[in-house]
Amino acid sequence: MICSIEEFYLLKMPCAKGCLRNSNRGKIMSANQEEVLPEGWEVRKSRSTGMTYYLNKHTKKSQWEKPEGPAPLVDEDEDDSSAPKQVQCSHILVKHAGSRRPSSWREEVITRSKEEALDILKDYREKIVNKEATFEELASLYSDCSSAKRDGDLGFFKRGQMQKPFEDVAFSMKVGQLSQPVETQSGVHIILRTA
Fold this sequence. Notes:
Strand content: 15-25%
Structural class: alpha+beta
Number of strands: 10
Radius of gyration: 25 Å
Largest sheet: 4 strands, antiparallel
CATH topology of the largest domain: Chitinase A, domain 3
Helix content: 10-25%
Strand order of the largest sheet: 8-7-10-9
Shape: elongated
Number of domains: 2
């Protein structure tokens, strides 16, 4: 009798049913569920947390979110040689009551709403664009971040060092460009890419 490897293991080792992997179709089978993955991905379990993560078999990069499409054959971050590895930015942060830490060097307790914070930030942006004030002046006087001491300068940073929404905008900007308001857990920001 000729049988597949999977059938052999199921016949000889019934306990293998819970961890059998059908690599031809990217399926992971467990005793009580079947998970279909796009081509090029495999499921792994973190030794430290016990949580499930997904490994790109081509690039060996992992992610926590279940992939929705086939695994890229090359690392997209490394593939684009024109993409900057790090950027330098300044920012003005306006915190609100819903911010991660609603206090700053300027105010012990911040009670303004997110909408009020956005209005304040839009006013700062308009003053900069209309050349009524410089970015540095407004950052040093009004930013709720300790970087106000450096006119809002955050220095150079790489991907993964800032909150994702902030990072995504910063890395998409050209040097000298001023962003629209950006929301993060810290509050709302405007960003000036400086290098």
